[in-house]
């Protein structure tokens, strides 16, 4: 018996952080979440699974285009035509979504109740049974798992739940519960959703976050897809299957051995080639140049050229979109000890670094300094947040300040030369 | 840190340019332009911080040869000599070329890095002017002024660059900056958002359209139902209207039918058909009868003609009928018989002629064969010759050839081998040679080898030990040559000498003893002293004595070992010589001319084996050759005899076997051919005789046959009364047969016609009976009555057909005919028509409404179908994200640049707060000196915008100059005047004064370094270029004052400056160096 477990489809959730530039492979990356969903359906059909388990967040909560729902419905109909039942619980995003409320589902789909746990079985002689409960509202903070019924003996019991368990980085702690609570119910497999990074939390019983099916920004890097469950007598095999059509990658380029920007570009190209080959599919890449490097100052002075050169190199692959190029190098002559700030540099640089340190120590002052800029108040709300210009995040402010100090010292060095 | 001496050994244009900067005071390096002052300034920097990897100063000296030597003195007084090279490995070294860690030098530099040194401790004219201009650009901003005067780095300009850069990304009133294009109401972000919003399909909108489509479907269903009802009613009314005419027609036809039936019986349809058929048949029979009669008449005429022809042709003789089938059969048989006899007779005649010709031909052939046989020669028997040839072995001649060549080759090889081994002087006949056995020889060789190894090893060890002994002897000799300590033997010898002298002296000491010779006592004393000294020395130099003893012992031991090894060597030589004797004896038994050396023994053995093998091969080949040649001779003799006996040509005596064999083969073939020819001739004669006999028999048989045929013919013609040749008989018979055939045919035809007449008669009778039956069926008495009944039947059936049609029309309207007739009866036609018009209008209206609703439904459904999950809005959302990403990228860069500027400004402010007091205080003194007291105070004043500005107070009595023009060198009072003198802002200062102010601030800044023990040499490159003598003198005084805290090196191409300096500085405080 085979089953497919996926979650967090977030259909039509756009790719974030990809600034358009000439010859960027925009067409290749368009509609990635839709194509990943189509891949899910094709896989289910190809593997002739007996059921598809969707553990919530099919839609983005704030997305209002009903065409998305109609697209999803079409995919469900394709599964229906193949005789594959679908089991669906709503997640926090679905609960907030207008479109999920309006959508009528085909007959092969079981949408679990949100008021209480429900048990579903495709037919009387089926070898498995699914228990689940969806979200009635976005912020479900009570433990839903405690209300789930006990396992039915003699069947492969599956628990379908949208939860962050006891908490996961970057994810709201909805429907909190513990592994022990889940294990106590005696189910064979817990099909969870909500956490976008794949994680096999437990093997006995199987408690699995399959991750989302398509990375949408730089933090969602690496392979994305679903879990193929093969139930054999006495054992259950799990297998991750890629569904993503675009792979996000964070590529670190160690510039320790590079003397100048051109050498860094050479290293970056090699790294990019390797990453593309490893992914085996279109790539949205962030290149971070690291290490104590002779090229440090040049990278900052010539940061525009660095970006342009690397984008030009990325065009060697017609399916690589360079999301960002970031210089995170340090000057080779400077001490690596943070307490020994600027040792090895001239007095001017030391002064700048000292001032930066003082400014960073006072988060509010730094935040106010940024807010005082003419630009800040004109920025749209969407860019003033996580992964973007996140002024609320002290680390982000600190990094911006460090970059400003790097930039300034690079200019000072150039001026001194 | 100070530079005490600097030597540009190989650097730029300099070679061994040594400069001493050790003395206190101001050092002025004078040289014309292009003399290398800048090179000198660069040299100091590269001495301390390393030569630049891509230095351009290798134009005279090769890169790898560049070298700067220096003696440096740290703040603590410690001195360090350094050599700076342009090398990747150990570029810093000591004068004796040992690597010097950079850390050692770094300690002297006290944390002043390369950039600081270049921007803080070096100053040239351009930088000075630039600093002055920066003060003016900063409008006296105190923070900037202080910050700028820290070094030559123009930091406020960097700040402007940063500001310029972020303003290129965004300004609050900008239009074309990237962020301005993205943001705002009409920016790309807002625009793509609007596009996204317009592409969104609201779930409520979808629901609305879905509901509308459903409603349209329901409405349409209702309309369709109403339309169907009304249409049904309309149909019913139309049906009644249509039934009106049909019902009326049906009544009329029914009446017609009844009237028709009242006139008489109506014949059924089959009667009509039967009557038609009978009538046609009746006419046809009458016609046939008439035709038969005509034909019979014609046949009778023809029969009369035939009878006449029969009489003319005659009749066969013999018994039986003269006409009829039997007569015809006789004629036919006779014709066949005549034909056969005629043909057989002809064939027999031909055959008889051919047989006679064949007999003649065979007789001629036999005569020819017998003549040819008589011509053949007498036969000779080839068998003996064939046997003689067969006895010659196959391939004998070829084998002799091969053996001959093999023997020659073997002999040649043997000869070559003999020559190759000539050095062993081996005898021709090797059978006499008796060499030692292989094992014996190997054992002996092994013994000799081992003996030689032992001998060589003994010689080597002897040689080594001898060398060692020589070495030890040389060591001992060296030891003894350099004042060797006395040995025990020396001591013994000296003591013996002393004893000897004592022995000689003691008698004279005894009372009454003989007087000793006068030299004996001193000699004895000397001997005592020598013994004591030797003993003392032996105690003192006990270690050297031990060394001497060790050396001597080693020499002795070595000598002993050499002697032992010499004996071993001699023994080895003896053993070797004995083996030589044994070797000689080993070879004595052989018949060799000389004993081989052991080294050559193996080669000799191999040579003997080889020669023996080759000799054997030769002998074998010779033997085989002789045997084959004897056999060949025997066969040659025999073949010659046999050939002669066989009548062959006489063979020459010297013919060799192959040629003789060829002649014999040829003769044998000739004899064989002659025998075969004779046999063939005999065979042919026998065959000719047989053939002749057969031909004669055939001719006789054919003659008998011809006679038989002639007899038969005569009998046949006589029996039938015929005569003439077979052809004439045949013609007569054929004529008779033709007459008989015609008569027979005509009789047959007449019989057939009679039969046909009979049949027609029968049919006519049958037709008449059928006709009577039809009359009876139709109750008719005449054929006319029958025809009328048939006409009525036809008319009745037509009326019935029309009634059926009307009934079908009425039945097709869904009601029974009776119901229809009732409905028709119930409705008035006019009223019905009026109502139909009304209902038609009503149904039309409903149909229109239904069509409109159907269109609406289709539109709604089309709209719904269009909502098929298109990704338009999602793509727009991606476009929004891409624009937002651009905002993030540019925004981050903007904020980064903005923060960089903030950092710089904060740093400037921090520096001002920290250093304003001491720097201004010190700068005030320097500025006063530089301006020769024209300015007495530097003041931290407040500018019009509330910011701190730097102003200088002019001394009272110091005359203010007119307002400054560009490039002028006078100062104006500006801004404010106090009781102590006017305050002058930087804008009010002359260019020269501003330069002086900058120099004052710059020099004041340096004080901090001295206070921190981090003073470095101050390199001033033509900074006084635009100063007049008075200002130069003032500056030189400042430099001299500074020189106790900093080493001051002033580079200039103005030799005049040295005069100015000499005039104001004591000689011990001024040091002039000339370069170039």
UniProtKB/TrEMBL annotation, chain A:
Q: Which GO terms describe its molecular function?
A: exonuclease activity
Where does the Calcineurin-like phosphoesterase domain lie?
A: 1-197
- Recite the UniProt keywords alphabetically: Exonuclease, Hydrolase, Nuclease
Specify the domain of life of the species encoding this protein.
Bacteria
Identification of the protein by name:
DNA repair exonuclease
UniProtKB/TrEMBL annotation, chain B:
Q: Which InterPro entries does the record match to this protein?
A: P-loop_NTPase, YhaN_AAA
User: For bias kind Basic and acidic residues, which ranges apply?
Assistant: 456-476
Residues that span the membrane, as ranges: none
Instruction: Give a yes or no for keyword Chaperone in this entry.
Output: no
Looking up Pfam families in the UniProt record yields:
AAA_27
Tell me which stretches of the chain form a coiled coil: 822-849
Q: Which UniProt keywords apply?
A: Coiled coil
The record's section on SUPFAM superfamilies has: P-loop containing nucleoside triphosphate hydrolases
Q: Which residues form the YhaN AAA domain?
A: 1-198
**Compositionally biased tracts (Low complexity):** 958-982
Task: Specify the protein name.
Answer: AAA family ATPase
